[in-house]
Amino acid sequence: MPGSQGSWSPLEKGKALARTVRVSSACEKRILRGHRWIFSNEVEERLKEFLPGEWVTVVSGSGRALGVGYINPRSLIAVRLVGAPGQEPTRAFFRDRVEAAVRYRAACYPGASVCRLIFGESDGLPGLVVDRYGDVLVTQVTTAGMAAVEEDLHAVLAERLNPRAIVFRNDTGARQLEGLPLEKGVAYGSLSGPLEVDCHGLRWSVDPLDGQKTGLYLDQRDNREALRRWVQGKRVLDLFCYEGGWSLVAAAAGAAEVTGVDSSEAAVERARENARLNGLSQDVSFVRTEALDYLKRTPRGAFDVIVADPPAFAKTKSVLKQALKGYTDLNRRALLALKPEGILVTSSCSYHVSEQDFQGILLKAALAAGRRLRLLQAGGQALDHPPVLAMPETRYLKCFFVQDVPEFSRPFSASDTFKGGEES
């Protein structure tokens, strides 16, 4: 069972918060502004003396209590704050946090059966993600502190929401940084195969156990809804379409023709199944190929609307320079395939690519493609993925709707060169 591998439980009477962690003055200031992470070089105690996942009280250099959280001496983020000073990590504590998260999502999307139910630090539960797909919950624990109480969290979720099943998808690489095993399975109830859920007023086949992430990419929900106003009667290209999220929303909103492109055969098959579920098979076609290869073969000006929603190109800061070139080349090629006055919906889910970086990417790509762009909308994560204002690390998604303005653009000639990436 998940969470059972740890030898230390914070719920054992007399052990929770028994020890303190003293932090530097610079860290204290950041915490008082609302940041929730303490890095290993900011801890004054010997980290090796603590157990991974142990819950501790955090104090300033002068002994002022700053909060409670859990520690992991193996991680660069040594301590993650969870509560105010003196708060014990009891079941009642977690029950209150889950209840608050449920209330907030009900306000975001009244009556919705699909949502990101818990989003880590934003819900006061760092290291925990919970997605809701109808009567099935999918959890993901990424830290030793949350792993220590995982079974209790599952019990609280089952008590509050009475799901048919709780699936744990603890198979993300972030767990390895915490010294945790990769695992997945059913922690509560039973589940066999994919299930059908409703989102965007459409039916979706979701595979919580074997699909990517936890099933669907819910963070683009609001941006996909915003696409509806721009696609009626248009020819739409959806790059990195995964299971057809953008494609099917466009088709349902009245697009004349939609093409989805993805390199994964499994994803394309699920996208086709989702089209069949909604009676949209005649309106959407899906192609299995690399997105850049498809753009290289696409005539210039072939599409009215292009969506480019790639996976993260910059998963670490060390590859940022290379990632910026990749994003620039992708968007340059997409702009070349766009008709005059066409709309490009382009995203980056790389935290290390800032909004300023992303705007610079689009400016460089537009210059190379001989286009001039105006910004129609700058979106981010869906409402059920709210960032913490004091933690820029929790705001990762950028989604820009930009439009070519032909009166300010110039024809692109074969003699033009491009310095930001590969040219063909």
UniProtKB/TrEMBL annotation:
What UniProt keywords apply to this chain's record, in alphabetical order? Cytoplasm, Methyltransferase, RNA-binding, rRNA processing, S-adenosyl-L-methionine, Transferase
Biological process (GO), any one: methylation
Q: Does the keyword Magnesium apply?
A: no
Which molecular-function annotations from GO does this UniProt entry contain? Answer: methyltransferase activity; RNA binding
Show the SMART domains listed in the entry.
PUA (SM00359)
Question: What is one cellular component GO term in this UniProt entry?
Answer: cytoplasm
Q: Which family does it belong to?
A: Belongs to the methyltransferase superfamily. RlmI family.
**Protein name, entry field:** Class I SAM-dependent rRNA methyltransferase
Q: What is the lineage of its organism?
A: Bacteria, Pseudomonadati, Thermodesulfobacteriota, Syntrophobacteria, Syntrophobacterales
